[in-house]
Amino acid sequence: xxxxxxxxxxxxxxxxxxxxxxxxxxxxxxxxxxxxxxxxxxxxxxxxxxxxxxxxxxxxxxxxxxxxxxxxxxxxxxxxxxxxxxxxxxxxxxxxxxxxxxxxxxxxxxxxxxxxxxxxxxxxxxxxxxxxxxxxxxxxxxxxxxxxxxxxxxxxxxxxxxxxxxxxxxxxxxxxxxxxxxxxxxxxxxxxxxxxxxxxxxxxxxxxxxxxxxxxxxxxxxxxxxxxxxxxxxxxxxxxxxxxxxxxxxxxxxxxxxxxxxxxxxxxxxxxxxxxxxxxxxxxxxxxxxxxxxxxxxxxxxxxxxxxxxxxxxxxxxxxxxx
Amino acid sequence: xxxxxxxxxxxxxxxxxxxxxxxxxxxxxxxxxxxxxxxxxxxxxxxxxxxxxxxxxxxxxxxxxxxxxxxxxxxxxxxxxxxxxxxxxxxxxxxxxxxxxxxxxxxxxxxxxxxxxxxxxxxxxxxxxxxxxxxxxxxxxxxxxxxxxxxxxxxxxxxxxxxxxxxxxxxxxxxxxxxxxxxxxxxxxxxxxxxxxxxxxxxxxxxxxxxxxxxxxxxxxxxxxxxxxxxxxxxxxxxxxxxxxxxxxxxxxxxxxxxxxxxxxxxxxxxxxxxxxxxxxxxxxxxxxxxxxxxxxxxxxxxxxxxxxxxxxxxxxxxxxxxxxxxxxxxxxxxxxxxxxxxxxxxxxxxxxxxxxxxxxxxxxxxxxxxxxxxxxxxxxxxxxxxxxxxxxxxxxxxxxxxxxxxxxxxxxxxxxxxxxxxxxxxxxxxxxxxxxxxxxxxxxxxxxxxxxxxxxxxxxxxxxxxxxxxxxxxxxxxxxxxxxxxxxxxxxxxxxxxxxxxxxxxxxxxxxxxxxxxxxxxxxxxxxxxxxxxxxxxxxxxxxxxxxxxxxxxxxxxxxxxxxxxxxxxxxxxxxxxxxxxxxxxxxxxxxxxxxx
Lengths: 323, 598
Description:
The complex is a heterodimer. Chain A contains eight helices and 14 strands. By secondary structure, chain A is of the alpha+beta class. Chain A has three domains: about 5-105, no CATH class; about 110-120 and about 130-185, no CATH class; about 215-320, Immunoglobulins (Immunoglobulin-like, Sandwich). The termini of chain A are far apart. Helix content of chain B is about 25%, strand content about 25%. Chain B contains twelve helices and 23 strands. Classes of the chains: A alpha+beta, B alpha+beta. At the A-B interface, α3 of A face loops of B.
């Protein structure tokens, strides 16, 4: 009826709204942005709906695609696929999350994997390959024929032979029933399920390790005289992904990392209790917050860093002796 | 002697005169004394009142229409109307708001005339923006007026006999009560949102600092300020200092403090979204359309309304009241948004009538004449459901002096001074603010600007209702105006059925037809001794050209029956006796007519 009209889609939408810490989304379905790196573009305008991934985010999709293909054993990019109005697109375009989509299994992937396996067995089959293509110039329904061949060799039961039947709506006409078994083109043959699942588990566990992870790298304090101190806090991201994708900033759905010092505002000569930090890129990106404070009657001052996707850490500033 | 007699008479006359004078004075004195102590009888003036034109003499439910009612007040009005007019009304909740207030629908129609669920429906709501309060009184007034005038005025009687009105006085009762009871920003619904991205929701709203029961503005005397008092209207107006002139004040926004200690004031107020950007057609997320919230129909209020509309496919027209600006708005909300030219033509015609009924209102297309808006109710009602809809923006300051252009700030100040006797602003008073120090709090009252003063309110309600009733009157009204039978042979007949749409709006709009929103209108024929051999729509009644249906000749599907026009359907039947023709139109109703074959 309208977007998010169904109980199921609404439940998922509500779930992710209530879990803003979700940093990576993987959707197994029709769409696929892992087999092939999606195209990126500069956002046209902040007031217009986007139709392609922000080019600044493409690199992260490429990196995750490489992880995916490595886990599956693919040595090249295949065709991608998009699905309009999908949860996957919503999570990137509207909610600014790294939103990955793949088919849990597809004939195309299966064919490619079989080819790769053959190549491994016969590394010197160049002439053989050229001979094959030379013997078959007919390009009609190439994809279907490849699929049928694969099913013949790997799961012959997936295709039911066409057979004539009597159909009441078409009296005295030849009607045949047959073709692929329902869902055969979207699900692996039963014997392969375990193997396929293992590969995806491998991918998912690797992907999860690519989330941003916030940490405190360094706390520096300097006594400036009397009861005045300079405090420097370095916040780092030891994960792979940045604390926010470009689209997370555009949509403002991924809030900036905040640093909150447990100290009343009146003690700050520069800086403030509450600071929002810029995006911290992954693999060791660092941002710094600097404060000048008039020391209260405390030697230790706590603080916390909260990143929507990279976690929350606490730290303590220890003020050196004024003497 | 004679002289004595004369003098005697003279004395008697004098005496008489004196007595008379005395009596007169005495009597006069007592009569004056009585007049001073006499009072008129303290009866019920209503029993001695005579109606002006506009409302019936008999008022079963007394409502003062020169004031505003909170959710409980509106509920009471609707409940009393329902009790007083059970044969005209049905009262039910379509869902609950975020804070659990019922969203009431008063269904108004002549319940004993026809099937209420199959009459063309007029949907009317108000107050989706909590602060736009007079919209709800407009809807409630409509209910009150229709109920009282049914049976009194032919026009109203026909409206309730032929149409059903779904009246939702407030679809944002949380925002309404917040605004009426407290003030401040209340456009939003009441779901807490994190406006400033600090992980907390609604933690820094405005507040009534000086405890005068109103949330007004803060200003501070400031030698570097860029504002000063208006020379002629210092109590009412602050103006910018000239570029080369020193100012006296800085403006500090609405009353409030830094509740969460983040160095900002009032930056995460209650709510913080816009339910009229939350509808499931041409919806865009918050960064493109501010206030859109998480996804279409994410809010219980908009969700309830959408489910209600989906459950009432007979709704053929809709009005969503807003304030302000004096506009009759129609879609689309964005450039290139859904609008078929024939639907636009009908909307434009209705709204032209509105311009004459609503002085100084302007007929506008939302994106072009006002501003682009994604995901508003107009978009969904038309784009998603094919319903011809308007959003009236009630009240314009052009009505303060009844001038075609808006009055100046000075003229508005004069209105407050001379017509409102100084009402409309709160005098500025000093206040010790925890961050700013000595400031002043005061300025315009929340009731000034977007809603009319009491003595203009009733006019606003009635005129807008009248426009919407005209809109309702234009909903499709169909009739099987003629059934002609022609004998073609033994037991073989040609039957021509003529169906008229006697109003402006088609049975199915261009959007409805193009997107298959509702089922096509179906003209069918049946009879105990009847076999239909062929059927079709007559495409040329003079040359008798017929477009035959391919299958199931007993029913002919029509895309639409245009406004003020007729369609003809031909059935070729074999049989005898009685037959019944049925016209089933989702939005225009269900008709049946029986006739005997000759």
